[in-house]
Structure formats: structure tokens, C-alpha cells
Amino acid sequence: MKYRLVYIYYTTMTNYFLYARKSTDVEDKQVLSIESQLSELRSLAEREGLEIAAEFVEKQSAKTPGRPRFNEMVERIQRGEAQGVVCWKLDRLGRNPVDNGQVNWLLQQGAIQHIQTPEHSYYSKDSVLLMAVEFGMATQYVRDLAYNIARGLRAKARRGEYPGPARVGYINNPHTKRHDVDKRKAPIVVRAFELYAEDRSRFEDIANFFSDNSIRTGSRSGSGGGKTWSKNRAKRVLTDTFYYGDFEYAGEIHHGTHTPIVSKQLFDRVRAAMETRGRRQKAHKDPQVLCDLLRCGECGCSITAEAITKRQKNGNVHRYVYYRYTKKRGPCSQAYVREEVLNTQLSGLLSRFVLPQEWGKEMLLRADVFLRVLWRF
């Protein structure tokens, strides 16, 4: 009897995830676009006969952990949906020690059996030294790049060139990389300083002045759209030394090479008006007993008080106190309430509650005992 030996080969199909990433950071300046990466990687997978189970596209920097698409890919690899990764370069997977270590660990444990790039193949049986060196170089590149950029920006500031976006009243010149005066908005900014220096305008008035002149939040030049500035933003403009020639950067004060649009004298007048108004408001800000006890029933904001003084033509002066919500949670339909009206409402509410006589006698008795003990000491 003749026997024939038959060899049966069992093969398992290896699935791959395709991962493409590009951020807007300087570190990715020379990296192919997402579309180019996808095209090259698909061609690579077809040439190598790699079965792509899914594609993951990320438009986010890898300097810090927390990329959602990368984390999703890792979770699906841990569930066994794929055993390989196709990417443009190893630094596309990670530029920080956390993600780098996670990929390295999955490769060592065999959860990832193969990482394929156009230039190199990484297998779980390979030495971890090569991958560790490449990941380390990617991480160090980001660290060096951040340090060099910060150093360059500090050097630029010391030359008197502000390393940041242009203020209102200036425009970024793409050719000289400097801040040029905006001929349309600069006179508006100067007039805002003058209005506040006259000590007749509040920050809200200055914000409305900017809005009336088409300078609003999120509006384009001359479009007329956007929202009115907050009073805090108007205050930031009026207290910004950039407008008379100086600016602060990285904790240092520098004299800028840009053209000032406000004189130092006008800036000092604005600051003096702020200090005078601050002292005046502090002197007239009397504590109101109901502020910490009540909240608005509609919006839930705390209640604040505002004292208003009205002078009549015959010389009589009347002082009124109005209570209102603090507006910290947005608009509310409730109107101002005079203190007298609020007192009447509270008295009517409290009149519904009567303390039983037995409780009153007991409380008076205990108070008397407490006072006698206290008197002995």
C-alpha cells in the first residue's frame, strides 16, 4: 500500500489600518498633504498585497496625547480588528512619549505584527532599539523646534517687532512682517481714547462706539457684521501700551518699532480718568443688605444693587436704590425693582410666617440664661 504525504498550510489573513495625519504646525510643513498621503499609501498597500480594513485620517498635531482618531485605531487594534498599520512615516503615529510607548508596546506584545511605511517595515520580532531611536528623534525634534521658535520670538521682540497678531488699528504686513497702521480703524481707536479721557464715557460706551463704527467681534473689514464688544475688551484696548509704542512680551517690556497712533500724554489721561472713576465708584458703592440674600427667579443670577442720584431743576436731590440680576448668565426679562417695592414684597411674604408663642418664650428663656452665664465670665 502506498501512502501519499499531504501538507496542509493554514494561513491567517492580516488586516491593516491605514493612518494618515497632518497638522498645521511648522513641524508638518514638509509633510505631504492628507490626499497625497492617502494616494501613496493606497498604492503601497496594493503593491505589497496588504488588506486595508479601515482608513483613519487625523488633522491634529501629535505633540501631545489625546488624538481621537489615533485612539480609536489603537482600541480597534486591541480588539483584534487589525494586526498591521500602514502610514507615511513612523512620526505620523506619534511625536510624544505616551503615544510612542503605546505603539512600541503593542508591537512587542504582537497586537501589532507589522507596521509598513514606504521606506521601512517594522515587525514584532525586530529589535525595539530601531523603533525607539526613531520615535525618540521625532519627540526631540518637536522639543527642539518649540525651543527654537520661542527663542526666535523673544529675539524678534527685543528688536522691537511684536511677535503676534495685529491690534485693532493696525494690520499685518505680509511683506515686511511688521504691523502697519490701519488708515481706516486707527482714527477710530484714537477717538475712543479721547472720549474716555474726557471722563464722560464708560467702557460700555466705548464698546458701543466701536460697534457704531463697524468694529465688532468676528466682523470683517467693512462688513458691518459681528457682535458688539464686551466692556472688558474695550478696557483692554484703552489700557494697551502698544498704542503709544511699548509692548510686553514674555514678561519683558520692549519699545516697538511700529508707528504709535496714540500719544503718551493721551494714554496717561485715560489712565488717570480710570483711576478717578474707580475711586469715585468705590466711594459711592454702599453695601446693600439684600444683595447676598436673593436670586433672580427666572435666570438664577445673584441680585445686585445700584444707587441712582437724580437732581431736579428746583435743586431737590433724590437718591434711589434699584435691585437687578447680575447679567452673568445672559439676558433676562425681569426688570429693575425699586428698594421700597422690594421691601414691601418681602414684608408681605414674611407676614405669612408667625413664630409660635411657646417657641418665643423658650428662645427668650435660653437667651436670658446665656447672658447670665456670659456675665459671670
Could you please describe the fold and organization of this structure?
The protein has 377 residues and is of the alpha/beta class. It has 10 helices and 12 strands. The relative contact order is 0.06. A 5-stranded mixed β-sheet has the order 2-1-3-4-5, with helices on both faces. Strands 10-11-12 form a 3-stranded antiparallel β-sheet. A two-stranded antiparallel sheet has the order 6-7. The radius of gyration is 35 Å and the shape is extended. The protein folds into 3 domains: 15-143, Resolvase, N-terminal catalytic domain (Rossmann fold, 3-Layer(aba) Sandwich); 170-283, Hect, E3 ligase catalytic domain fold; 286-354, no CATH class. α3 (97-109) packs antiparallel against α4 (128-158), α5 runs antiparallel to α6 (203-212) and α5 (186-197) packs across α8.
Please sum up the structure shown.
By secondary structure, the chain is an alpha/beta fold. The chain has helices at 34-48, 68-78, 97-109, 128-158, 186-197, 203-212, 231-238, 264-284, 339-350, 357-376, and strands spanning 15-21, 51-58, 84-87, 114-116, 121-123, 170-173, 178-181, 246-249, 252-255, 303-311, 317-325, 337-338.
Q: Roughly how many Å apart are the termini?
A: 120 Å
Instruction: Determine the oligomeric state from the structure.
Output: single chain
Give the helix tally: 10
Strand content: 15-25%
CATH-defined fold name of the largest domain: Rossmann fold
Low-confidence stretches: 5-11
Portion in helices: 40-55%
Q: Could you tell me the radius of gyration in angstroms?
A: 35 Å
- Order of the strands making up the biggest sheet: 2-1-3-4-5
SSE class: alpha/beta
* Average of the residue pLDDT scores: 82
Count of the domains: 3
Shape: extended
CATH class bucket of the largest domain: Alpha Beta
Largest sheet: 5 strands, mixed
Reported CATH architecture of the largest domain: 3-Layer(aba) Sandwich
Number of strands: 12
Give the ordered list of helices and strands: EHEHEHEEHEEHHHEEHEEEHH
Question: What is the CATH homology-level superfamily of the largest domain?
Answer: Resolvase, N-terminal catalytic domain
